[in-house]
């Protein structure tokens, strides 16, 4: 079982920041080419799920890794608190509407996992309901894989409590980041241990599509790992231009 407190949130010793950033730049040049192959073929799709605690850098990944891609071939959906209309349907209804069409890369900034994370931590959903939802999530992801040729990548951005607090402080001090400040984030941070347990339960029960734990204290390392994993996956799909 994955234990987050046993996994480092930083790059291994010996990793050089500037060298790694240069390698990432090379990967990103390839990413645009392979996304074009996916789009032109129109037979497969990719869903990338980004989860993590507040300030773990989900927005930064979207901006710094995927801004090189042709906008016609990528879509981003951020899932906030569900609306009244969304709450009147099953919990996957609002998610399924944004599943990727063939040829597309779809990014989820938070996702269907929020319905077994924040809901459990705040006791809006009991464990029995949460486990049933996890089973439904497994079936949903299996449906996308087997019936829509969707490749799914699930990244958990693993940040430390100390780094999270530093980023909260920076949002108050930096005028360019102040718009991100939300007093509720500090309240959620007090529930850190509960969130960690809820995530670990997801890793254990929703692992038919394996989770990738990405150290997130250093943005340059986090972005390198994600960019490399995405390009390796696209290359493994053996994509070709139509005849």
Structure description:
The protein contains 10 helices and 5 strands, in the order αβαβααβααβαααβα. The protein is α/β, with parallel strands linked by helices and 243 residues long. The chain has a single domain (17-79, 88-236), classed as P-loop containing nucleotide triphosphate hydrolases (Rossmann fold), CATH 3.40.50.300. Strands 2-3-1-4-5 form a 5-stranded parallel sheet, with helices on both faces. Helix 2 crosses helix 10 (219-236). The N and C termini lie far apart (46 Å).
CATH architecture: 3-Layer(aba) Sandwich
Sum up the overall morphology in one term.
globular
* Gyration radius, rounded: 18 Å
- Give the strand content: 5-15%
CATH class identity: Alpha Beta
* Number of H- or I-type helical stretches: 10
CATH topology: Rossmann fold
Mean pLDDT: 96
Q: Total number of β-strand segments?
A: 5
Number of spatially distinct domains? 1
* The CATH superfamily title: P-loop containing nucleotide triphosphate hydrolases
Keywords:
Rossmann fold, globular
Task: State the gist of this model.
It contains ten helices and five strands; from the N terminus they run αβαβααβααβαααβα. It is an alpha/beta fold.
List the helices and strands and how they pair.
Blueprint: H1 17-41, E1 45-52, H2 58-66, E2 74-78, H3 84-87, H4 93-96, E3 105-109, H5 118-121, H6 127-148, E4 150-158, H7 161-173, H8 183-189, H9 192-205, E5 211-215, H10 219-236
Parallel strand pairs: 1-3, 1-4, 2-3, 4-5
